[in-house]
């Protein structure tokens, strides 16, 4: 720790990160061990974070991430959307299909940014705010593929008719962006995705990832 940083704030943020990395919560003793501080310090940190709804404790005393984190997370979406729009516009115009940025929201895929092409006679109507299960549609499947191979480039994912009859999708995950789990893709009214689309989607996903780093 340098003189310009806050040790208490640092510890509080470390608590949130530790809790975010577990599905079953952590006890005060477990947090004390992981942080290398005594239990009294952990109690004080948890009490402060609870006041801001960033942490909650269940009946068994295990600490978990609180709903206040979701409120903070919602404010991130506009920033992510703004950073992604240039790459999405270029992708939509180049391919002639609706381009989208999709992020994980719990167990669902949530479209947070959508750009439709300006020059096509028709295209798929796809709206920001649209949700679907992670295991359906190219956007969600691309994210799941990245989870399964976090150290590798999972490439792109193709689907047909999983979310809308007659529509095909192509998506590639965002790779190397800390704290953001999502994908970039296109959806088009076609029975199959042209070969060049997959490579172009991969390129757009890399552009968005670079913009978010």
TrEMBL record:
Keyword terms: DNA-binding, Transcription, Transcription regulation
Organism: Streptomyces alanosinicus
UniProt-listed Pfam families: HTH_IclR, IclR_C
PROSITE patterns, alphabetized: HTH_ICLR (PS51077), ICLR_ED (PS51078)
Protein name (Swiss-Prot/TrEMBL): Transcriptional regulator
Domain HTH iclR-type: residue ranges: 6-67
GO biological process terms on file: negative regulation of DNA-templated transcription
Stored Gene3D superfamilies: 3.30.450.40, Winged helix-like DNA-binding domain superfamily/Winged helix DNA-binding domain
GO MF: DNA binding; DNA-binding transcription factor activity
Domain IclR-ED span(s) in chain numbering: 68-213
InterPro entries tied to this protein: ArsR-like_HTH (IPR011991), GAF-like_dom_sf (IPR029016), HTH_MetabolicPath_Reg (IPR050707), Tscrpt_reg_IclR_C (IPR014757), Tscrpt_reg_IclR_N (IPR005471), WH-like_DNA-bd_sf (IPR036388), WH_DNA-bd_sf (IPR036390)
């Amino acid at each position: 720790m340098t003189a310009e940083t806050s040790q208490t704030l640092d510890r509080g943020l470390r608590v949130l990160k530790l809790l975010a990395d577990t599905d079953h919560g952590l006890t005060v003793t477990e947090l004390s061990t992981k942080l290398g501080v005594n239990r009294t310090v952990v109690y004080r940190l948890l009490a402060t974070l609870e006041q801001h709804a960033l942490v909650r404790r269940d009946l068994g005393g295990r600490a978990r991430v609180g709903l206040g984190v979701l409120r903070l997370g919602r404010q991130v979406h506009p920033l992510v959307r703004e950073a992604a729009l240039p790459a999405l516009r270029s992708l939509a115009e180049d391919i002639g299909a609706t381009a989208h940025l999709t992020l994980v929201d719990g167990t669902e895929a949530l479209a947070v940014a959508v750009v439709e092409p300006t020059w096509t006679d028709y295209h798929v109507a796809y709206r920001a705010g649209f949700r679907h299960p992670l295991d359906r549609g190219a956007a969600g499947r691309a994210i799941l593929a990245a989870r399964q191979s976090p150290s590798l480039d999972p490439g792109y994912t193709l689907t047909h008719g999983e979310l809308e009859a007659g529509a095909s999708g192509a998506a590639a995950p965002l790779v190397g962006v800390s704290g953001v789990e999502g994908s970039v893709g296109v959806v088009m009214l076609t029975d199959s995705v042209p070969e060049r689309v997959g490579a172009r989607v991969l390129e757009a996903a890399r552009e968005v990832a670079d913009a978010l780093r």
